[in-house]
C-alpha cells in the first residue's frame, strides 16, 4: 500500500479518508494491517502493562502494528516520533493510560509472544476494541 503525506495528497487532489470516531480509526488501522504485505511481520509491544504511566508515552512502536499509523496521512501524524503516546492519540484516545487496556489485550507480548502478520494483528485489534 502506497503511503503519501497530506501535502502531497493535497497537491495531487487525492482524497484523504476522514476518520471521525475512535472506532473509525481502529477499523481503518485494521484495514491497513489486513492489506499490508504478508511478508511484513510486526513485533508485539513489550511488557506494556508493567510500565509506569509516565513512561507509556515514549514506548517505541516502530516495529509494532501501530507503526502503520505514522505512514498514513489520514491519521495526521506522518513524520512524528513513532511512540505509543503519538500512536494512541492518533487513534482517538486522550492519553496512553486510556489506551492501555485494549492495546495490552491486542498487541502485548504477554498475550502474543511471537511476531504477527497484518491479518492477525488486525483481528486482535478489532476484538480488543469490541469491533469484531
Strand-helix topology:
Layout: H1 6-12, H2 22-35, H3 53-56, H4 84-90, H5 96-107, H6 118-128
What would you note in describing this structure?
The protein has helices spanning 6-12, 22-35, 53-56, 84-90, 96-107, 118-128. The protein has 132 residues and is mainly alpha-helical. It has one domain (6-10, 21-128). Helix 2 runs antiparallel to helix 6 (118-128) and helix 5 (96-107) packs across helix 6. It is globular.
Measured on Cα atoms, how large is the radius of gyration?
A: 14 Å
Q: Summarize the main sheet.
A: none
Count of beta strands: 0
**Helix content, binned percent:** 40-55%
Total of helices: 6
The span between the termini is 23 Å
Which class do the helix and strand fractions yield? mainly alpha
| Stretches with pLDDT under 50, minimum 5 residues | none
Summarize the structure.
The protein has 132 residues and is mainly α. It contains six helices and no strands. It is globular, with a radius of gyration of 14 Å.
Features:
single chain, 132 residues, 6 helices, 0% strand
